[in-house]
Amino acid sequence: MSGWSTRQFIYLSHLIIQIGGWAFRIGILIGLLQSGMSAAGLGIAVTFAPIMLGSLFLSPLVDRGDPISAMMIVNAVRICALLAIFGSDGADSFLSYAAMAVLSLVQPVYLSAEIAFFRRITSEDGMISVLRNIANIDWLTYLLGMFAGAMLSDQLHLPGVLAFNVSAIMLSLVVLLGIKQQFRRTPAVLEARPSGTVLDLAPLYPAFLAVFLLNLGAGIINVYPAIHATADGVLDKNVLLTIVMANGVLALLGALAVKPIYDLLGALPTIAGAAMLLAACLAMMSLDAGLTLVIVSSSAMLGFGQIFAAAAHAHMVSSVAPDRAGRLSGLFQCCTYSGVAANGIALSLLGDWLAFGTIVLLCAASAFVAFAVATFAVVRSMDSQTSRPADR
After folding, report:
1. At a CB cut-off of 8 Å and minimum separation 6, what does 270 contact?
2. Cβ distance 314 to 131 under 8 Å?
3. Which residue has the higher pLDDT, 181 or 229?
4. pTM over 0.85
5. What distance in Å separates the CA atoms of residue 345 and residue 273, rounded to the nearest whole number?
6. How far separated are the first and last CA of the chain, in Å rounded?
7. In sequence order, what are the beta bridge partners of 116?
């Protein structure tokens, strides 16, 4: 099995997982909403802390051994968690919340294992294509999943969704098993390697800070469509679907555009430029001037967000040795989700004190600071390149 065909099978496994995952997210959200808004809020809450814990403490483990086995173990854990929900008293039960927490805990481990495996079979310059392709799959399946979920919301029942997701995970396991069998004959890629520590990544700390600050500002996109689709406590599903689908299309276009922009401008200018444009989108959001501006600003924001995320992730993972890729990817995800979680906390605390436009301007300020941090990295990189000839 060539490196090219191996990558296609990993993408296939990711596609299968995402299709089942979106069906589950929509199905469990509908089940929780039917139990009340407090149940939905608790369900959303139990996803954040486990993701951060998994990305921080479990993702580095994939550098110690076989990333394919790590992905297979995660899929086995997912099946057990889904079966636990299947056997619970409903979506709004302690067992369901515990299972959702477990699913969130292992979620970043799967992506870190994918990145670690790709890094072992792909050159540094090829990682931007890998991250672009993963983002394309994520947003394509998002569009399909959200559209299908909206169309089938009245017929979508949790047991059927769970069965569909379990079937998808089992199919992914079969694909991964085939890859595992192939690499048993050429085991070098799967051999255990030392893991190192977070101190090894110290030169990338400013980049991690930029990722956190950008998501601290951009996290509002998770509630922005619902805010504008709700009037007097009543949700307009057509407005919500219009915003969400437009967001998904622009996010997919952003993911498609990142590689040519990355190749043209370079990693750091792409990261800094995307952060600046995203801050501008947030400033536009703060005007709160009708549905058209809502769609334009939020959709453009998601498009630029994909360019920032893929460029930053590719730049950072290409800057470290293959045996550090899992740890780095975990820290990247931790910074992303901690920024989103902090944004949610800030919204809940400030929502009763400040006008919505003011809160969004504060979010724009955070994104602008991320742009400043990325710009500093660009200037420092240019200075180091200029000084090299004089040092010789």
Report:
1. 258, 261, 262, 307, 308, 311
2. yes
3. 181
4. yes
5. 27
6. 44
7. none
Residues 39, 362: Cα–Cα separation, whole Å: 29
Q: How much is the mean pLDDT over the chain?
A: 85
Q: Residues 126, 324: contact at Cβ < 8 Å?
A: no
Q: How many whole angstroms separate alpha carbon 156 and alpha carbon 30?
A: 8
Instruction: Express each pLDDT in 7-49 by its tens digit.
Output: 899 999 999 999 888 878 777 766 665 665 555 556 666 777 7
DSSP state of 266: -
d(CA 128, CA 118): 11
Residue corresponding to tokens 């030392």: 194
SS3 assignment for 299-331: HHHHHHHHHHHHHHHHHHHHCCCHHHHHHHHHH
Counting every residue written for the chain, the total comes to: 392
Cα distance between residue 128 and residue 85, in whole Å = 37
The backbone torsions φ and ψ at residue 283, rounded to the nearest 5 degrees and listed phi first, read -60, -40
The answer to whether the CB of 310 falls within 8 A of the CB of 297 is no
Q: Kindly provide the residue ranges of all beta strands, DSSP E only, lying in the chain, ordered along the sequence.
A: 230-231, 234-235
> Does the pLDDT at position 194 exceed 80?
no
Which parts of 54-157 fold into alpha helices (H)?
67-86, 94-121, 127-151
Q: At which residue do the structure tokens 């990817």 appear?
A: 329
* β-strand pairing of 234-235 with 230-231: antiparallel
SS3 91: coil
State the CB neighbour count (10 A cutoff) for residue 365.
16
The three-state secondary structure class of 234 is strand
- Give CA angle at 336 (256, 319), nearest 5°: 70
Give whole-number Cα distances, 52 to 48, 258, 329, in Å.
6, 26, 12
* 14-27 burial code (b ≥16 CB/10 A, e <16): bbbbbbbbbbbbbb
pLDDT at 2: 55
